[in-house]
């Protein structure tokens, strides 16, 4: 773990609240959260983890071509996901299952995409402005920066009304920071002072390459060389993720320019189901991060606040219900109609697309009544 100082932390691994000079500006955001919202943080982390495990099982049983687990990174994702306001636009990588659920995406849309039954997954306008998963490493940072430039040019940020002003949030991993796209996004974000937050989930492994081999200095320092202020946080602390991201987004939306967050977390599972992490990492490393699990520490915190067994039993039932529902619906999936390939190519009807759709339909009908 590369750090030149202790990362910002609001909740210690033992579940106790941390108060110090480094986090004092963020504490008021946590103090403003009521019990219902705090329990919702926990609910999302637990339910998404159970979905994640079930999806991995489905892939192993031949129901999916691939699965991309998020096990261990739920704290970073849930905190940042809830920090975004409804008008904000979010550009994920491919592991942000918790953020997708928070923004209203049915988990089955992710299942369908990784089963090869859709060409993107969902319409961002109908799903909380969550844009599509991006498998090309780091490219979403450019998409987000370009969108944020448009937000600024349209005058949709910087008016002083945080309830209406828009901001853009983009997620990527430590491996993406070695891609030129991310550095290019820093250039344009800084030059145009875009209303965006670049959120790095440093899970310490770019497939089998450790972060120490990618950078000799903490990654949160990289954006500072481009003039973008940054923080390094405990990414397994859902409260720190929420408070720092909310602060960063509100700074961006009010015209103060882009912000960068490095969330130190850990990928407890494989990079994808095509990967075998036992070939390149040690059990003691897993044990170290397992003791810092975002869900167990937050349960300890909630119990200290008075949450009873019934709360956690209810969440566990919801998680099992979702897993069962996803399994049932996955086993019922059928191949989509051929014409689906033309849907959502353009946001508005397009004559060329309609011509191609008509041609394909006629071509397929030409085989009706033939044998073989």
Automatic annotation (TrEMBL):
InterPro entries to which the protein is assigned, alphabetical: Alpha-ketoacid_DH_E1_comp (IPR050771), DH_E1 (IPR001017), THDP-binding (IPR029061)
UniProt keyword annotations, A-Z: Oxidoreductase, Thiamine pyrophosphate
An annotated Gene Ontology molecular function: magnesium ion binding
Keyword Membrane carried by entry: no
Cofactor dependence: thiamine diphosphate
Entry annotated with the keyword Transmembrane: no
Catalytic activity as recorded in UniProt: N(6)-[(R)-lipoyl]-L-lysyl-[protein] + 3-methyl-2-oxobutanoate + H(+) = N(6)-[(R)-S(8)-2-methylpropanoyldihydrolipoyl]-L-lysyl-[protein] + CO2
GO biological process: branched-chain amino acid catabolic process
Name of a matching Pfam family: E1_dh
PANTHER family in alphabetical order: 2-OXOISOVALERATE DEHYDROGENASE SUBUNIT ALPHA, MITOCHONDRIAL (PTHR43380)
Assigned protein family: Belongs to the BCKDHA family.
Name of the molecule in the record: 2-oxoisovalerate dehydrogenase subunit alpha
């Amino acid at each position: 773990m590369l750090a030149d100082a202790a990362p910002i932390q609001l909740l210690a691994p033992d579940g106790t609240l941390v108060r110090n000079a480094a986090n004092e500006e963020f504490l008021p955001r946590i103090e403003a959260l009521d019990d219902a919202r705090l329990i919702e943080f926990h609910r999302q982390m637990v339910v998404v983890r159970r979905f994640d495990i079930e999806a991995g099982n489905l892939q192993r049983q031949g129901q999916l071509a691939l699965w991309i687990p998020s096990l261990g990174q739920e704290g970073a994702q849930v905190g940042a996901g809830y920090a975004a306001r409804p008008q904000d636009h979010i550009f994920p990588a491919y592991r942000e299952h918790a953020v997708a659920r928070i923004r209203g995406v049915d988990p089955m849309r992710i299942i369908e995409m990784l089963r090869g039954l859709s060409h993107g997954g969902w319409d961002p306008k109908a799903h909380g402005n969550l844009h599509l998963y991006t498998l090309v490493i780091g490219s979403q940072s450019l998409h987000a920066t370009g969108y944020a430039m448009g937000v600024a040019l349209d005058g949709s940020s910087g008016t002083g009304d945080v309830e209406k002003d828009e901001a853009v949030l983009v997620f990527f991993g430590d491996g993406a920071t070695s891609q030129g796209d991310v550095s290019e996004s820093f250039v344009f974000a800084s030059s145009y002072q875009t209303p965006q937050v670049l959120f790095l989930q440093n899970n310490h492994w770019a497939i089998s390459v450790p972060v120490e081999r990618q950078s000799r200095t903490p990654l949160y320092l990289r954006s500072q060389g481009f003039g973008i202020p940054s923080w390094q946080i405990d990414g397994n602390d859902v409260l720190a993720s929420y408070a720092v991201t909310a602060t960063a987004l509100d700074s961006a939306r009010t015209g103060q320019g882009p912000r960068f967050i490095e969330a130190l977390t850990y990928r407890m599972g494989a990079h994808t189901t095509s990967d075998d992490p036992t070939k390149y990492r040690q059990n003691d490393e897993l044990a170290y991060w397992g003791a810092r699990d975002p869900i167990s520490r937050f349960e300890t915190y909630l119990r200290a606040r008075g949450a009873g067994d019934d709360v956690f039993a209810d969440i566990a039932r919801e998680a099992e219900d979702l897993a069962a529902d996803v399994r049932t619906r996955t086993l019922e999936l059928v191949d989509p109609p051929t014409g689906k390939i033309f849907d959502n190519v353009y946001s508005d009807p397009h004559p060329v697309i309609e011509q191609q759709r008509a041609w394909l339909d006629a071509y397929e009908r030409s085989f009706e009544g033939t044998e073989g």
